[in-house]
Amino acid sequence: MDLHHIRAGAGEPLLLIQGMSGTHRSWGDAFLGQVQQDFDAVAYDHRGIGLSPATSDPFTLVDLADDAAALLDTLGWGSAHVLGISMGGMVAQELALRHADRVRTLTLGCTYCGGPGSVMTGPATMQKLGAAMTSGDRDLAIRAGYECNVSAGFREDPAHFEAFRAMALAAPAKVATIMLQMQAIAGHDTHARLADITQPTLVIHGTEDEMLPAPNGELIASLIPAAELQLWDGVGHMFWWEQPDRSAAALRAHALQTAS
């Protein structure tokens, strides 16, 4: 599958795996600009999303992990540092488990592993997002997505929404594909297998995450041997969007110090 991707920067190879409905644009210029100073960074669109080929067939997160491994082949990379956020963090878990030799270091952000102790999105948030996505009102859908993905403090600056809206309009995600992604997430469960992850792992989670609450990050870090956990107080689901400099610095410190 010829997945759309962008590549820029120099240094150690870095694969960036986005979450549900996310595209290569969802990383934001501020964060990408930072990581491209230290890494040869690739951001891509999952199958059916953004500028990648459309799909109407169901898929699993294992399929998406195999897509990521195939993209590494396309890039000519034997291995890479991997950052996966939200659904992309679930894909990154499967990538690290199924293709362990392809992952140098693993950074998991605002994600979920399934199984005992995991916490899915609350019903009020799901209802708000579902109603907005199926309303046919694009602006309403973007607004709801924004409000559920960032913290209350971040929302206080109107300029932050305008930047988010511009990103969302630049590479729209099809509702039908988002539904397929939701089906794939529903089947995700790495809980019993996370102990098999041997790559150096950093787990980042914001304490104001409405989409996948912070106990998920604590659980994942407790299950992966020697994983480092960073809980960011007052930060929402899209931590890299709210705090791009801090996010890039955390990734840099974890990946490059480990590599050295």
Plain-language structure description:
With about 260 residues, this protein is an alpha/beta fold. It has a single domain (about 5-120, about 175-260), classed as Alpha/Beta hydrolase fold, catalytic domain (Rossmann fold, 3-Layer(aba) Sandwich). Helices cover about 45% and strands about 15% of the residues. It is built from 11 helices and 7 strands. It has a 7-stranded mixed β-sheet with strand order 1-3-2-4-5-6-7, with helices on both faces. Helix 1 packs parallel to helix 11. The longest helix is centred in the last third of the chain and has 16 residues, at about 245-260. It is globular, with a radius of gyration of 17 Å.
Oligomeric state, counting identical vs distinct chains:
single chain
How many β strands by DSSP? Answer: 7
Identify the overall geometry: globular
Beta percentage is 15-25%
CATH level-two architecture: 3-Layer(aba) Sandwich
- Give the overall average pLDDT: 96
Q: Given the helix and strand composition, which structural class is it?
A: alpha/beta
Number of domains: 1
Side-by-side strand order of the widest sheet: 1-3-2-4-5-6-7
- Radius of gyration, in angstroms, nearest whole number: 17 Å
User: What is the name of the CATH class?
Assistant: Alpha Beta
Number of helices: 11
Helix content, binned percent: 40-55%
How far is the first residue's CA from the last residue's CA?
34 Å
The helix/strand series, from N terminus to C terminus, equals EEHEHEHEHHHHHEHEHH
> What summary fits the major beta sheet?
7 strands, mixed
